[in-house]
Design a protein that fits this description.
Elements: H1 3-9, H2 13-25, H3 30-36, H4 42-56, H5 61-64, H6 68-75, H7 81-93, H8 102-114, H9 120-136, H10 141-148, H11 157-177
Helix pairs in contact: 2-4, 3-4, 4-7, 7-9, 8-9, 9-11, 10-11
């Protein structure tokens, strides 16, 4: 299987799942997939990030940890919202966010959650990740509430729901830490 050829062949869930299954059978192909995220071809980047998200959904989070730094650096270069959505989905799935990228993830999520130009899915994922960071760093709880509480008003249901859920979760944790 040639990853580039197969990614460009068809933009369908069936194709993405097939490529993900191929990578799951041969984990040495995972680094090749990560390399494709740096491509100049937007279609390759978008589809490779979709495959990456699908691979990670199969309980293979251990594969992504060595590449978290690289993925965060790429996010500013890639303009396609699907890339960011897939990356945020992956970060949200991590049991713990690696310490070396926590400040970058915090900045990314604050900017994403509060940017009305972002897609609803990206903003909702960013809000959930902010909640995860509050579990790791309880000193961020008050600031995070101040950032996401205004998002409850005049927003799409997915953003309102994420904001309410995250506030409920972190205020529950706040009682534990005080």
């Amino acid at each position: 299987m040639n990853l580039v050829t197969d990614l460009l062949k068809e933009n369908s869930k069936r194709n993405i799942v097939a490529i993900a299954q191929y990578i799951l059978k041969d984990e040495s192909k995972f680094s090749e997939l990560i390399t494709l995220l740096s491509s100049e071809n937007t279609k390759i980047v978008q589809r490779a990030s979709w495959v990456l998200s699908n691979v990670i959904d199969n309980n293979t989070l251990y594969l992504i940890e060595p590449y978290c730094d690289k993925l965060l650096k790429l996010i500013s270069k890639q303009k396609h919202p699907a890339y960011k959505r897939n990356l945020l989905h992956i970060i949200r799935m991590l049991d713990t966010i690696p310490e070396k990228i926590q400040s970058d993830v915090l900045e990314l999520c604050i900017n994403t959650a509060t940017n009305h130009q972002e897609t609803a899915a990206n903003r909702a994922f960013a809000i959930h990740i902010l909640g995860k960071l509050c579990v790791i760093h309880p000193e961020l709880i008050n600031e995070t509430i101040g950032i996401i509480e205004p998002l409850i008003e005049h927003n799409l249901p997915s953003i309102r729901s994420s904001a309410k859920h995250t506030i409920k979760k972190i205020t529950k944790n706040k009682k534990i830490f005080t």
